[in-house]
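idk why but the lab printer keeps eating my pages so im just putting this in chat instead. protein + magnesium ion:
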Amino acid sequence: MSPIFVLYTLVTLSTGLALLLVWRHDRTQGFTALLGLSHLIFSFSPLAYFAMQRPEPLWHGLGVGALVLISSLYVTFLLTGFGQLSGRRVTWRQGALGLLALCVFHGVLLAGGRELAQGGFATLNTLAGLLVARWMVRLRPVDRFCAVVLVLCGLNQFTYAFLGDAGTQQQTVVATGLRLVLGLALLYGALTRSSREFRRMRDRFFELTDRSQQGVVVLCGSEAVYRNPAFQRIFGMDPARPAPPVFSAAWLDATTPPEVREAAHRRARDLVAGRVQDPEWEGPRISLDGRALYLRFRAWQVDWDNRPALQVVVSDETASHAAAQALWWQATHDELTGLPNRSALLRRLRELVDPARPHPFALILLDVDRFKSFNDAHGHEVGDAVLQALAQAILAQVGDQAELLRLGEDEFALLVCGEAPEARARTVTDAIRALVRDPLVLPDHRFYLDVSMGVACHAAGMAASPEQVLQAANAAMRLAKRLPGTSVQWAAEQIRQELAASFGAEQALRAGLRNEEFALVYQPKVRSSDRALIGFEALVRWDRPGHGRISPLDFIPAAERTGLIMQLGALILHRACAQLAAWRDAGLPVVPVAVNVSPLQLLDTGFPHTVIGALQTHKLPPAWLTLEITESAAVTHMDQAYEQIRLLREAGVEVALDDFGTGFSSLNMLRSLPLHTVKIDRSLISPMPEPDAVAVVTAICQLAAVLHLDVVAEGVETQQHAQAARQAGCQVLQGYLFAAPLGADQATDWLRAPPVAQLDALDVPA
Ligand code: C2E
Ligand code: MG
Ligand code: MG
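predcted complex ->
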């Protein structure tokens, strides 16, 4: 084989291989593989020619077959390659059919003799070149140049057709040159296309990251090799001010709040060492210009200039986090004072009584006395200001000894955690007592406030639900409410046990009702002017087997809690009415009986009906019955109380406001409620005849006179009490001086003839 053939073969072979190598590095250019294959295959065409020219039929046959296949494959790969370059897709099926057609075509040409074959090949290749040229019209110059060279290759094949064997050498020389030029042009096109594509990808990456709202930083080891503008913006990096290297120790110190700094350092060490255990994290950060941030990070390994690197994406979630925090704050805090609210207290209590990790603590419930009437008198704005000032004052007074929460209205809670909760709670309640001794100073007012506090202590290991602890403190607070001035009551062990076994209390009360263990005692009320018996107050007692006689102070709250007060209240009413009927039937001079009514009964809209029903059952005139409602009940449920009292008075039943002076009723309320009588509480009578106490009771009596209300003095224990109360203007007296609550028989005796000794003891001034 002549050297020029060898050269031709080598040129075609090497351009084919070079194109295949380009494809190997840049798989996006699939057409380079097809064109590479076309060249590679075509490089074997001189061998096929030589074989074909051999006289031996076998070699000749093999040469013909090889040439047919090589030429057909060459054209097929060439057209599919350039087709793909110009965006034309050829399916396998189309490719296979085309190949078959070409094989038949080449076979027929070769069967017709060498000249015909050469002419046919030249025509086919020229036409193929022209087709490619058409496809390349809109592509780059280098692609169009390739098409031109391809046409020239086809035209060059006509040399043999015109000159015969003499032109073989010349044709091969030109073909070698053309193949070399085509190969180089194709390689140049593929390489420029590849680098252009790379540039395009890189530009797109930077465009995307530069415009991204998310911060992006790429770390190669400890060096930040890339960071986008958003990253710099989020962290407040200013080109004018030098910043510590990103993720360096100094950077972390500057950008993390102290509570998360240690964890941030640990994570950064892992990241720099290429350990990404947890690819996502979030937390509070501080920008270099001092803004508080909340950021979410995501990190993953990337390849950066053939180096392993870490790409970290930072999302600024400060706004959404702040919104979520605000919502959470709203749900768990009180708007007026900014203190944690009732739901926060329940959550805290649940944590504290958690059986897995029980903590000793004390819960103090604090309620401002007479706040309702205070609000009525001064308006809600002043009321709100008082609550805010009180909250601030308590916070300042108790410091970190207790957590302060506001449960609603004028009710606050203090949580005292730690060992020896009783002692700690006592320190806190003492501090609050000391606080309210001085007036609360507002810009335009000074107010003396009284507060009632109920304390429930919870020892570690004690089984109780948050609700039970709350109930115990609440019950203690209600007891404190009954005491005048600022007072503290401790949930007694017994109350706690009772609460823990509230189911037991309910069962015992039910049994008591069933077995008629409740009895009424009657305390006489006498006219202050002549000490004549003018009525009784019916007071309930529980003769509980095994427990003796139980005071209503101990079981009425339990009955209220369990809802059994309705049943018990109705029973008491019927008992009192039955007693009145018995006295009447015995022909005794009947006096009215007053029955105490629980606030819960008063809330029941069917209550007036129950009362009237009881009177009718026993055929009693309504004037024989008086109902005593406590001041606190009337205040808390003013609207319902008003309606119920109105209905009762309409029916002829008299209504007295009990325990007056311990609650929070305003003068306005005294005027607007349709009452008949006011009962001044024992706590105001017992200090008499001290001048202050006398002045207070006198003022109440004068007011009552204006409002046409009768006044009863409760808890009259001494002659001085009786005398002072009468002089102050109380028309009726009630107390141990005259009689303790009496059994039914003794009360009957009183009706027949009040004991002379009692009346003799009176010192009735002329
Ligand atoms: P209250 O209605 O203010 O009843 C007066 C209380 O003072 C009675 O206590 C009575 O025994 C007591 N007392 C009377 N005179 C004196 C005195 O001179 N000195 C002292 N230190 N105390 C005196 P009691 O019977 O223990 O009742 C306590 C409270 O329980 C009553 O206060 C009332 O709020 C409630 N209660 C009593 N009976 C009933 C009832 O049938 N139904 C309801 N719902 N509550 C009742
Ligand atoms: Mg009473
Ligand atoms: Mg009373």
